[in-house]
Amino acid sequence: MDYVKAFLIGGLICALVQILMEKTKMMPGRIMVLLVCTGAVLGAAGVYEPFQKYAGAGASVPLLGFGNVLWKGVKEAVDAGGFLGIFQGGFKASAVGISAALVFGYLASLIFQPKMKK
């Protein structure tokens, strides 16, 4: 049942973002920034953590989850090291995810022949 819940909630998030992309004139990059910032704000408000526990990977994988990870990393680093934690906390918390995205993106480019859009 956890897989179904994660699939449905993650799919709902993706569908809402797709509607936002289709119905507004916002560029994809701005929508991505909006999602990351929304995840960070919801994490700071204490709303995202219970939602993520309920939704599982459906809430932790999309960009909303990335914003929440950044928020948690910054909060922990500020609590441990003070002001400088603002600058290093997000990097430490998200390093594994960013590294995985780079490695798997590179491997996918070796397997599939990428082409530039025309």
Automatic annotation (TrEMBL):
Transmembrane segments annotated in the record for this chain: 31-47, 91-112
Domain of life: Bacteria
Signal peptide: none
InterPro entries xrefs: SpoVA
Official protein name in the record: SpoVA/SpoVAEb family sporulation membrane protein
Keywords linked to the UniProt accession: Membrane, Transmembrane, Transmembrane helix
Lineage per the UniProt record: Bacteria, Bacillati, Bacillota, Clostridia, Lachnospirales
Organism: Anaerosacchariphilus hominis
